[in-house]
Design brief:
Elements lengths: L4 H16 L4 E6 L5 H14 L4 E7 L4 H14 L5 E4 L2 H13 L7 E6 L2 H9 L4 E5 L1 H16 L12 E5 L3 H7 L2
Parallel strand pairs: 1-2, 1-3, 3-4, 4-5
Antiparallel strand pairs: 5-6
Length: 181
């Protein structure tokens, strides 16, 4: 399954920029070094943020909630004036949100994640995460199985199948959650 990681990584920047404005100080929590999702989401976000937002630090959370909690605590100590965090997946967004809430900065720092994981969607409902770029796992699975089936039936299969995504915010999280059940 193919998704346009760079394009979608750039899509994350848009709600942060819209809400925080030019030159906002933000942190980026990256995934596993060398992983394609880390590279593509990072390149997309960094490319769109360049000249618009001020990425003051990038630190790896390894797509792990607990590690990102600790990383975010350190980021908050070193860069207490940040106003936004881009986490390259929702496990990282949840870890970052937990650290931000514990520091009493929930109203001051906007957090955007990536994937559409249940834990992140619930935190969006509560206002603890601002948005996620949600991937439709159900559609990705169906499209993948269809491609495999068609291949073994001798049918032509496209080289790339684009997976659908949606920007989920507090405004549409309830409807989105209902649509994936």
């Amino acid at each position: 399954m193919y998704y346009k990681g760079r394009r979608y990584g750039g899509l994350v920047q848009q709600p942060l920029y819209k809400e925080l404005g030019k030159n906002a100080k933000i942190a980026e929590v990256t995934g596993i070094p060398g992983a394609s999702a880390t590279r593509e989401r990072g390149k997309g976000f960094d490319g769109y943020a360049k000249g618009k937002m001020n990425i003051v630090t990038k630190q790896t959370g390894n797509f792990d909630r607990a590690k990102t909690l600790t990383v975010t605590e350190n980021i908050l100590q070193a860069h207490g004036d940040i106003v936004g965090i881009f986490a390259q997946n929702d496990e990282e967004a949840v870890g970052a949100a937990n650290a931000v809430q514990a520091a009493g900065k929930g109203d001051q720092i906007k957090i955007i994640g990536f994937d559409g994981a249940d834990a992140a969607l619930k935190m969006i409902e509560k206002g603890q995460i601002n948005a996620t770029i949600a991937q439709r796992w159900d559609v990705m699975g169906t499209k993948s199985l269809d491609a495999v089936y068609n291949h073994f039936q001798g049918k032509k299969v496209p080289k790339k199948t684009v997976s659908p995504i949606k920007l989920v915010t507090k405004d549409n999280v309830t409807a989105y959650m209902a649509s994936i059940k």
